[in-house]
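In this supplementary section we document a worked example of the pipeline. Step one takes a protein sequence of length 364 as its only input; no multiple sequence alignment statistics are reported here. Step two produces a three-dimensional model, which step three serialises into structure tokens for compact storage. The input and output of this example are shown verbatim.
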Amino acid sequence: MTEMTTSTETKGPILVTGGAGYIGTHTILCLLKDGYNVVVVDNLVNSTVTSLDRVAELACLDSNSRKERLVFHNVDLCDRDALKQIFENSPTFSSCIHFAGLKAVGESTRIPLKYYHNNLTGTFFLLELMNEYGCRSIVFSSSATVYGSADKMPITEETNVGNGITNAYGRTKYMIEEILIDTAKANKLLGVSLLRYFNPVGAHPSGRIGEAPSGYPNNLMPFIQQVAVGRRDALSVFGSDYNTKDGSGVRDYIHVEDLAEGHVCALGNILSIGSGTTIHNLGSGDGVSVLEMVKAFETSAGKPIPIKMSDRRPGDLAIVVCNPAKANKELNWKTKRSLQDMTDSVWKWVSSHPYGYDDPPAAA
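The serialised model returned by step three reads:
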């Protein structure tokens, strides 16, 4: 994929649900630079409108152009009446990129009904209104969690899904995929793109937007970030005796900017195809161990990251990597940024935003 430049052509509008979040903001920036107008729907339960202000700044939108090119609605997808008003009062959407949903894995095991209700109901209402108002394609933010306990690596799009998923969050992703596939079969005018991505990390190179989870972090990089800025004492590394290069678990990490560009490529592809369902893994295809990630971050931060070796967690696999060849070929997309690019960008973000977008900082 060639380097993305700012387009002078206006396209869209694109509806982006959950657009104020981590992956959403980076994707919206790519959409704006590619010439799309964007309408964002987000209830801000795990995000802040400040992130969209930063996106507008990075896209060089003044107050007048922002009114046309980046519109925000503080609306919950489960509020069907409010969502309908957005469809009613907007030009027909060319497509929708659907990020919105609760995503804390641990919480989903404790209060699964909340996750099933929120993630599925919001999607039902979205699809109903897309159909009613003539929005004919959707790019869904899915996840490698749909592959469950797959133990044959690398994972391809042909790997079985739905078996061995250990939490309600992952099962909602799988269920929504099935709903979208069935809907596209029944509605020959609908195009569906399912993007199963692996482990997003990184931040915008400006340091102005990045990952800012509220509450207890769910993934490796937010933990490293918080240790690096002194919010936590040490990083727990779960497992030192896996059959891997250094004994720690290996995962497929993808820079969030590469991931965002993948969404724009998928959007262009499904708009071109017009109907049916496409499925693509978005990952680097390269495995990086926990200890390798820590070492790279230490290089970026210029200081050691304290670690504490702990026992393996039940259900964790030694290695999880994908084969991104299908996306490379069909979407004309591939990752461009290195592991060091990932950690350098995260350090630039977190060293200037140790508490994310909060000001004053929220409680750790």
